[in-house]
Amino acid sequence: MDAAGLAEQITELLQLCRLLWIAIEHRDGWAAFAHWIVILLHCRARKEFFVAEPIPFRCNFMTRKVYLAGPEVFLPNAREILDRKAALAREAGLLPLSPGDLEIPHTNSKRERAAAINAVDEKMMIQADAIIANLTPFRGIAADTGTAFELGFMCASGKPVFAYTNVARDHSGRVSDLYGGAVAYDAEGRLRDPNGIAVEDFGLADNLMLHAGIERRGGVLIIGDAARDALYTDLAAFKTCLAVAVEKLR
């Protein structure tokens, strides 16, 4: 074993000792201790998952990790917006985990790269304690499909879920706008589009599986109303959602 390897093992041993002490000193600390042991072992095997944000031994032991989901990764200034959101999360006392933060392993094809990105993002969601999802309509009248998947992933994982949107008009209203207002109620009181296809009409921000799924789990979906040219850069609704998440995660 070379000097670098020995130093790494000594560092890990010291980290484990510190975690053990904290587990003894804090009520309910053993579950968290076991959680960090798993992450530490995972880090040894797959260090690329911790390139941008190492395991947070420097942070408060009980710091909550929040996965920041949203379509911002596609923006031309993605790094700027993601960094702003991450900074706000840190200021609020949370540890942000965000797609685009971490190094993607080298691959030999586009299909393999897609799978690698999916794997990295799912690993971060597994490590996260909660999610804040940006459900602002993206390339259409509904939330980004990748963000919807991530929200469902966290719901299925039994973790706290929070979300926001920068569009105040509800889902059925946006469907109506899509068809130039040509939606109408049928004889049974069901709202339908010009093709006779039913339209969800619950006054929700998006598909009921998203909005109702969040609220059923005790989360919130903050409704913002940003200017059209700032739909993905206005962080007012995000800040409100972040404040609620911090309070509920205490």
Question: Describe it for me?
Answer:
This protein is of the alpha/beta class and 250 residues long. It has 2 domains: 1-45; 63-170 and 205-248, Rossmann fold, CATH 3.40.50.450. The chain contains 8 helices and 7 strands; from the N terminus they run ααβαβαβαβαββαβα. The strands form 2 sheets. The protein has a 5-stranded parallel β-sheet with strand order 2-1-3-4-7, sandwiched between helices. Residues 25-29 and 46-61 have low confidence and may be disordered.
Secondary-structure map:
Elements: H1 3-25, H2 29-45, E1 65-69, H3 78-91, E2 95-97, H4 110-127, E3 130-134, H5 145-156, E4 161-165, H6 171-178, E5 184-185, E6 191-192, H7 208-216, E7 221-223, H8 236-248
Parallel strand pairs: 1-2, 1-3, 3-4, 4-7
Antiparallel strand pairs: 5-6
Short description:
This protein has 250 residues and is an alpha/beta fold. The chain is built from 8 helices and 7 strands. The strands form 2 sheets. It has a 5-stranded parallel sheet with strand order 2-1-3-4-7, sandwiched between helices.
